Every structure is written in C-alpha cells, then in structure tokens.
C-alpha cells in the first residue's frame, strides 16, 4: 500500500520549478458541477492565496490537490507526480477546513500520532506545537480547547510532517489579529525554506501577505496575479475592492 | 502496510480508550454483571444450566461489545474528518484495519480474562478443558466482533445507523448460534444458515471446552479466522481514499 513511500527525503530537491500544475480539472459533487474546467500553475516556493466567496469551490479544489476528491476529468501534477499518488503522501500536507482531530486525545497525543504516521521525530512534535503557540496547552484534551485553539492544533498536525507543499484550507479563520500575523509570518518562513504554500481565506486583507493571488468564484479562476497587478488591472486601492470589482465585472 | 504506522494506530486507539475510563469500566464490568445475573437466575435450578449457558455467553460478550465499540469509533473517524486526513498520509487501509484489530484484541484479552475468572471463581462455572483455550476463543471472538464492526461501519452514514447495525448484524447470529435451541434441533433451513455464521462456531467451541477435558476446536478456530480475514478485507474495501 505504501510502495513508493519514503523514497523522497522530506525537503529534498525537486526536479520541477512548478510545484502544482492543474490542467482542465473538472469536479462534480452530487448534481452540481463545482469545478467545470480549472487550469492553474503554481511555482515552487511561493506563498499563494486562494481567495473567493463561500461555496466558490476552494475546499473542493484543495481536496482535489491532495487526492481525496473524486475527479471527473483533467490532470493534477504535484512535484512532478499525479495528485494523490503514494509518493506524494509524505511530501504534501493538508489542513482540513473543519478541525479533524481526535477530540478525546491531548494536543500532544494528536500531533505525536500524525508524526508517527508521517515518520517525523519527537523534536518535530515539540516544534510544530510551538509554531502554533500551543505549548502551554500541549497536555489539554482537544475537546476542552477553544475554537481557535482547535484550528491551531489542527495546523500543528499538518506542520509536523515537514511537507514540501502545504495545502491549508482557512488556517486563520476565527483567530485574533496577533495570531493571524504570527501564522502568516510562519507561512512566509515556510515558503522561504523553499516550500510551496497554498492558503485559502475569506479575509481579503490577508491578500497583502501573499506572493500571488488566485481568485476563484463559481469554480472559475477570475484572476491569477500578484496584488499590485490586480490593483492596477482593476484600478482599485485594496484587495477587497479589487475583488468586488472583478466579481461585479464578471457578473455583468 | 507499514508496521510503524500500524502500531502507532493501535497505540493511538488505546490512548483514546485510556482517556475514557467509563467505557473501559463498562467493557470489563458489564460481562461480569450479566454472568452473575445469569448464575443467580439458575441458582435454584436442579440441573446445572449455568454450566452450559454460562460458557456460551463468554463467547457472545466479547463479540457483541467489540462490534459496538469498533463500529462507533470507526464511524467517528469518518464523520470527524480524521479518516480523510489519514487518507492524505502514507497510512494504508490495512494499517487502519489491523491497528483497530490489534488494539481491541488486546482489550478483549483483558476482558475475557476478567469475565472468565469471574465466571469460574465467583459464579462457580465448571470448565473441563484448559482455560487458555477458552481465552483464545474469547480473543478470536472479539477480533470477529471488531472485524465485522469495521465492515458494518462502512455501510453506516450516521451514528443512529451504526447503532442499528448491532441488532441487524448481531441478534440474528445470537438467535441462531445454538444458545437458545441446539443448532441440530432447528428447522433445517435455519440450521444450515447457522452453519455459515461465525458466532455459531464461537459458541460451539465454548461448549466443547466446558464439557471436554481435551477439546477438539480446530475447525471452530479455522472458521472464525476465515471470517475475521474476509471481514477485514471487505472492510478495507469500504475505505476509499477519494470520496465525492
Ligand atoms: N459533499 C458534497 N456534495 C455535494 N455538493 C457539495 C459537497 N460539498 C460541497 N458541495 C458544493 O460544492 C460547492 C463548493 O463547495 P466548497 O466547499 O468547495 O466551497 P468553498 O469555496 O470551500 O466555500 P467556503 O468558503 O464556505 O468553505 C458548493 O456549492 C457546495 O454546495
Ligand atoms: Mg471551504
């Protein structure tokens, strides 16, 4: 079952400079065609924001990237391999939008379990708990944590694997400004280490923190550019108005 | 499959149990209470009814309890999103199935030692055969419950459905296993069906250990092991990496 697992050293060099290549991705969920035809390319080592309205298909897109979404057509290549292939499972980290943790275990026990599954060390466990600022709560049961603390514990379980590509579905939702700033600094650090980080968000001012912005609405990429390019193109002052201008423009 | 991941999974499931004292207490005490009740019911009976039924029940408890515990906890993995997360990691389906079987098998050994000791020393159950065979049967029985529970949870979408699978999967086997009416005295259709059900063999083996100093249980063991393997394989087919 894990035939190709362990073949790639974590953080090892990749032969490709495009970490994520998506071509004509088509996803049907129930009766709804959520992603009709989506193509996008993400360079290695960038911090990329995936922004868009609720129900626009952000989570569906991310699920497709990590290989847990049934896909109707198209191809997704990550680090040169097809999405979801066994060799990628150690190299691609996924953060689910809703915390997916064992509520009856402590923070440390949760992170340590995923560390063992991913082949990480005890030091990785301590570091990733510190990265999300939960060291003081490491021995608390998940069920006794606040919503934002659960979000962070969830993130620690993803970080512990030292993935080369991080697919993070709304990691900063419901957190205070200080924590959000700290986490965005962490994402920046990860991308400076050469990791590719894709972060979805509703909060438009987080756009200023990204190298590149993907705006997605109704399963379609409205824009794929840097923030300054986007502002210039729409003639607006900030990400929020640029986004509204694009949506109004595309609806018209 | 990868032994490191399988063992990590079994360890994680045991940690979850360790935090849940009430469930552990229920798993260990309920069989004893029921055995005690049964021995009490037949306390004034002229024939040694408890000796024949008591041992069979030792074969039923681990099965039923492990079935419920496993189907509910794997359903929680599905609905809580941890299964989806695990499916993006190197964890193989076999790691999860065997992890569960290992963890609950260990619990079953403890459970059957406690229940058997209670039946023998407190309720005065007479067992002619070696006690270790009785424990081995209880272990296989618990693994059977775990394996069928894993399989059943694959067909449940909600907790309510998972709980309903208990009567649906388990009660028919309980009625047909020979505890109420000897299997060879049932209508032939029913006795044929009972020949195919795993719990019948667990109860047969338990009866054999009670009455026979050197019990012949090889066939019963083989049938149970076959059921365990088939259920685990079928159960792993219900786990999908990709979902709609
Ligand atoms: N399991 C499902 N079955 C059928 N349709 C679904 C399912 N999950 C999501 N959808 C539909 O797919 C569309 C996209 O959902 P998705 O979760 O990808 O949006 P999103 O951009 O992540 O939204 P949000 O910002 O609210 O998280 C929505 O219209 C939703 O109703
Ligand atoms: Mg979403």
Task: Explain the overall architecture.
- The complex is a heterodimer of chains A (252) and B (244).
- In chain A, 32% of the residues lie in helices and 25% in strands.
- By secondary structure, chain A is of the alpha/beta class.
- Chain A folds into two domains: 20-91 and 165-251, Rossmann fold, CATH 3.40.50.300; 98-162, no CATH class.
- In chain A, the strands form two sheets. A six-stranded mixed sheet of chain A has the order 6-7-8-3-9-10, sandwiched between helices. In chain A, strands 2-1-4-5 form a four-stranded antiparallel sheet, with helices on one face.
- In chain A, helix 2 runs parallel beside helix 4, helix 3 packs antiparallel against helix 4 (147-159) and helix 6 (227-234) packs across helix 7.
- Chain A is globular.
- The termini of chain A are far apart.
- In chain B, helix 6 runs antiparallel to helix 9.
- The model of chain B has no long low-confidence stretch (mean pLDDT 89).
- Chain B contains ten helices and no strands.
- Chain B has helices at residues 3-18, 21-41, 49-79, 82-87, 93-122, 131-153, 159-176, 188-196, 198-211, 218-238.
- Helices cover 77% and strands 0% of the residues of chain B.
- The two termini of chain B are 25 Å apart.
- The chains are: A alpha/beta (252), B mainly alpha (244).
- Magnesium ion (MG) is lined by residues 58-59, 97, 169 of chain A.
- Chain B: It comes from Phycicoccus elongatus Lp2.
- Chain B: Belongs to the ABC-2 integral membrane protein family.
- Chain B: The chain crosses the membrane at residues 24-43, 55-75, 96-121, 127-151, 163-182, 221-239.
- Chain B: Keywords: Antibiotic resistance, Cell membrane, Membrane, Transmembrane, Transmembrane helix, Transport.
Note the gap between the termini of chain A. 50 Å
| Cα separation of the termini of chain B | 25 Å
Strand content of chain B: under 5%
The largest pleated sheet of chain B is described as: none
CATH topology of the largest domain in chain A: Rossmann fold
Overall average pLDDT of chain B: 89
Largest sheet of chain A: 6 strands, mixed
Structural class of chain B: mainly alpha
Cofactors, ions, other ligands: adenosine-5'-triphosphate, magnesium ion
Estimated helix fraction of chain B: over 70%
Keywords (chain B): Antibiotic resistance, Cell membrane, Membrane, Transmembrane, Transmembrane helix, Transport
Subcellular location (chain B): Cell membrane
Family (chain B): Belongs to the ABC-2 integral membrane protein family.
Domain ABC transmembrane type-2 (chain B): 22-242
């Amino acid at each position: 079952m894990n035939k190709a697992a362990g073949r790639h050293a974590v953080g090892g060099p990749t032969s490709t400079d495009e970490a994520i290549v998506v071509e004509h991705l088509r996803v049907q969920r129930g009766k709804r065609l959520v992603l009709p035809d989506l193509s996008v390319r993400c360079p290695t080592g960038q911090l990329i924001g995936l922004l868009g309205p609720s129900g626009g298909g952000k989570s569906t897109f991310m699920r497709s990237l990590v290989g847990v979404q049934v896909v109707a057509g198209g191809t997704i290549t990550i680090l040169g391999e097809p999405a979801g292939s066994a060799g990628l499972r150690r190299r691609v980290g996924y953060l689910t939008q809703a915390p997916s943790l064992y509520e009856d275990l402590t923070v440390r026990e949760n992170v340590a379990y995923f560390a063992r599954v991913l082949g990480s060390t005890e030091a990785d466990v301590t570091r990733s708990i510190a990265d999300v600022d939960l060291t003081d709560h490491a021995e608390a049961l998940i069920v006794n944590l606040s919503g934002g603390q659960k979000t962070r514990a969830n993130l620690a379980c993803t970080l512990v694997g030292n993935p080369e590509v991080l697919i993070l579905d709304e990691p900063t939702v419901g957190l205070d400004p200080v924590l959000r700033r700290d986490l965005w600094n962490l994402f920046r650090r990860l991308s400076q280490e050469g990791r590719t980080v894709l972060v979805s968000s509703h909060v438009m001012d987080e756009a200023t923190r990204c190298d590149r912005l993907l705006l997605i609405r109704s399963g379609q990429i409205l824009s794929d550019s840097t923030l300054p390019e986007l502002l210039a193109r729409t003639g607006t002052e900030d990400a929020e108005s640029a986004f509204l201008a694009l949506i109004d423009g595309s609806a018209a | 499959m990868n032994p490191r991941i399988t063992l990590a999974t079994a360890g994680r499931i045991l940690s979850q149990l360790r935090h849940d004292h009430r469930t552990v207490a229920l798993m260990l005490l309920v069989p004893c209470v029921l055995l005690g009740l049964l021995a009490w019911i037949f306390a004034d009976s002229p024939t040694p009814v408890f000796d024949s039924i008591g041992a069979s029940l030792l074969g039923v408890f681990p099965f039923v309890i492990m079935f419920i515990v496993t189907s509910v906890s794997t359903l929680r993995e599905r609905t809580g999103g941890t299964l989806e997360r695990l499916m993006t990691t190197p964890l193989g389906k076999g790691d999860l199935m065997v992890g569960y079987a290992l963890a609950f098998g260990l619990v079953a050994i403890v459970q059957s030692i406690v229940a058997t000791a209670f039946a023998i020393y407190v309720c005065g159950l007479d067992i002619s055969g070696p006690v270790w065979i009785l424990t081995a049967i209880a272990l296989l029985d618990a693994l059977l419950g775990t394996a069928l529970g894993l399989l059943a949870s694959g067909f449940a979408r909600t907790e309510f459905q998972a709980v309903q699978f208990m009567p649906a999967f388990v009660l028919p086997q309980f009625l047909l296993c020979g505890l109420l009416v000897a299997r060879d005295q049932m209508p032939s259709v029913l006795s044929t069906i009972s020949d195919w059900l795993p719990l019948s063999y667990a109860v047969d083996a338990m009866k054999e250990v009670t009455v026979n100093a050197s019990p012949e249980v090889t066939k019963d063991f083989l049938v149970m092991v076959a059921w365990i393997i088939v259920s685990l394989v079928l159960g792993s087919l219900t786990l999908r990496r990709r979902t709609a």
